[in-house]
Design brief:
By secondary structure, the chain is an alpha/beta fold. The chain has two domains: about 5-280, P-loop containing nucleotide triphosphate hydrolases (Rossmann fold, 3-Layer(aba) Sandwich); about 290-535, Class I glutamine amidotransferase (GATase) domain (Rossmann fold, 3-Layer(aba) Sandwich). About 35% of the residues lie in helices and about 20% in strands. It has helices at about 15-30, 55, 70-80, 90-105, 115-125, 150-165, 190-200, 220-230, 250-255, 255-265, 275-285, 305-320, 340-345, 360-375, 385-395, 445-450, 470-475, 520-535; strands at about 5-10, 35-40, 60, 65-70, 90, 135-140, 170-175, 205-210, 235-240, 290-295, 320-330, 350-355, 380, 405, 415-420, 435-440, 455-465, 465, 480-485, 490-495, 505. The strands form four sheets. It has a nine-stranded mixed β-sheet with strand order 11-10-12-13-21-20-19-16-17, with helices on both faces. Strands 5-2-6-1-7-8-9 form a seven-stranded parallel β-sheet, with helices on both faces. Strands 14-15-18 form a three-stranded mixed β-sheet, covered by helices on one side. A hairpin with a 6-residue loop joins strand 20 and strand 21 (about 505). The longest helix is centred in the last third of the chain and has 15 residues, at about 520-535. The radius of gyration is 25 Å and the shape is globular. Bound molecules: glutamine (GLN). Glutamine binds near residues 356, 357, 407, 463 and 465. The site of glutamine has 10 residues, from strand 17.
Length: about 525
């Protein structure tokens, strides 16, 4: 069985197409089918690696080190689709591949054109992940909004695939909006136009997910169905989830969406096992306590910049029957001389310093780490957050006032976080980072070893700087615990504070592998410590 579902969006961006596509994936898995998720991003960047988190949100990293759109993070949280370079397609990649082939003379002198050469390249890439014999359904999310110029070649490729595979094998789900005008009246006109726009590209949607604040009633669904040529059962109310976005698979299921999709694809109906999702939603709805986590970072204005961190914190919460409230603290605000740390952190039960790049705000993070260490507040450092722990320790315990990362102070005599020797001369970005999954060996008897219950772990990395080996003996001599190393012992992977309830930093990004049904162990343990702190 090889089936394909295209998920497109109309009316405007930010409708939550990614979670809609992911929820469809979760439902297909609940029906015992094997899915692969693919994201198309119509921008010209080859990947998301060079994009600013301010503009584009988090850069999500896969096992094989691809730097991708944050929607792949949603796919990872809702489905078991393996995620790697092949699951993320951009216009930049497509053109780069076609131009390279043209330079190699592989088009045998023909004129190279958007149709068929670009569209063929897109089709090959869209179909590649589904080639694995065990795959039943590939779900392809087309980024952007139908009607954008950049999307046209991708929609044309989708149209051709639907035509070639047949409409029982490749189907289209369009996500649109029904807005409320002043007075609260709901308007279907934007949806009608959005569907027309898709039809003008030669694609008749099989189903519509209607985004709205409140549920869309049957009358409105019938009206939309009749204007868009979509069967009534295929018009789904995709109203805002009340408690958590993990309600969506259940919300869709309650309207028979999965049954409808199976029917459209000619897959015989089978039992839907949604126990895991029901349990996840129950835990979100019935927390036994609340904790407040202060997240001290750089890119705080845009919520999406640390998307996987917020999600992983909430997963850690439900693992402890706790609701997690996050307090976003812009680290540069802590830098002022008079900043009152006791007041800023008065009502938080734990502090997390996530990943980040560049000097701005770093000394504010050092202050946050010092506060957490001295006041025995649970502290979780992720990547930059570990490097901050090392800098803070060096300044306060080793009394090296100039201690810093060479990322921030290239000429410091105490570059306690620095580039590896063979990296120092590399000037270009990209290619010089440690990216993707790698192994860490955990020292027995440490907090991190207890948390994972294993000697070795595999987590994903995305960073350029490392704890400097030149200063490692000084750090350890004065009591900072180095609790995980790379298998050859050459790089520090985790540090812990001595005599502290929960002060731990890791060089990896455990948030990328956290799922609501399988919270990442470090987040689970961190929130557990915060719950304890809140109670005491
Ligand atoms: N800027 C730091 C480095 O490159 C940390 C990166 C991160 O936190 N992902 O090593």
């Amino acid at each position: 069985m090889k089936k394909l579902i295209f998920v497109t969006g109309g009316v405007c961006s930010s409708l939550g197409k990614g979670v809609a596509a992911s929820s469809i994936g979760a439902l297909m898995e609940a029906r015992g089918l094997s899915v692969r998720m693919v994201k198309i991003d119509p921008y010209l960047n080859v990947d998301a690696g060079t994009m600013s988190p301010y503009q584009h949100g988090e850069v999500y990293v896969t096992d094989d080190g691809a730097e991708t759109d944050l929607d792949l993070g949603n796919y990872g949280r809702y489905t078991h689709s393996p995620l790697s370079k092949v699951n993320s397609i951009t216009t930049g990649q497509v053109y780069q591949a076609v131009i390279n082939k043209e330079r190699e003379g592989r088009y045998l002198g023909r004129t190279v054109q958007v149709i068929p050469h670009i569209t063929d390249e897109i089709k090959n890439r869209v179909l590649a992940p589904g080639k694995d014999p065990e795959v039943d359904i590939t779900i392809v999310e087309v980024g952007g909004t139908v009607g954008d110029m950049e999307s046209i070649p991708f929609l044309e490729a989708a149209r051709q695939i639907i035509h070639e595979m047949g409409r029982q094998n490749a189907i289209s789900v369009h996500v649109t909006l029904v807005p409320a005008v002043s007075g609260g009246e709901l308007k279907t006109k934007p949806t009608q136009h959005a569907v027309k726009e898709l039809q003008e590209n030669g694609i008749q949607p099989d189903a519509l997910v209607i985004r709205s604040a409140e549920p869309i009633d049957e009358g409105m669904r019938r009206k939309i169905a009749s204007f868009t040529n979509v069967e009534f059962e295929g018009v789904i109310s995709g109203h805002d989830a009340k408690t958590t976005i993990y309600e969506l698979p259940l919300l869709y299921h309650s309207q028979g969406f999965d049954t409808f999709l199976l029917k459209k694809m000619g897959i015989e109906s089978r039992h839907a096992d949604l126990r895991e999702w029901t349990e996840v939603v129950r835990k979100y709805r019935e927390p036994k306590c609340r904790v407040r986590i202060g997240v001290v970072g750089k890119y705080m204005d845009l919520t999406d910049s640390y998307k996987s961190v917020w999600e992983a914190l909430s997963h850690g919460g439900i693992a402890n029957d706790a609701a997690v409230d996050t307090v976003k603290i812009d680290s540069s605000k802590l830098e002022a001389d008079g900043a009152d740390m006791a007041q800023i952190f008065a009502d938080v039960d734990g502090i997390l310093v996530p990943g980040g790049y560049g000097q701005r705000g770093s000394s504010g993070m050092v202050k946050a780490a010092r506060y957490a260490r001295e006041h025995k507040v649970p502290y979780f450092g992720i990547c930059l957050g570990l490097q901050i722990m090392v800098i803070e320790w060096s300044r306060d315990v080793l009394k090296w006032d100039d201690a810093d990362s060479t990322e921030f102070s290239p000429d410091s005599a105490h570059g306690v976080v620095s580039l590896l020797e063979d990296q120092v001369d590399v000037k270009s970005y990209g290619g010089t980072q440690r990216l993707g999954k790698s192994e860490s060996m955990l020292k027995k008897g440490t907090l991190i070893h207890k948390i994972y219950g294993a000697d070795s772990i595999w987590e994903r990395h995305r960073h350029r700087y490392e704890v400097s080996n030149a200063f490692r003996p000084d750090l350890e001599r004065t009591g900072l615990l180095v609790t995980a190393l790379t298998p050859d012992g050459s790089l520090v992977e985790a540090v812990e504070w001595p005599d502290h309830p929960w002060g731990l930093g890791v060089q990896c990004h455990p948030e990328f592998k956290s799922r609501p049904v399988q919270p990442a162990p470090l987040f689970k343990s961190f929130i557990g410590a915060c719950v304890k702190n809140a109670k005491s």
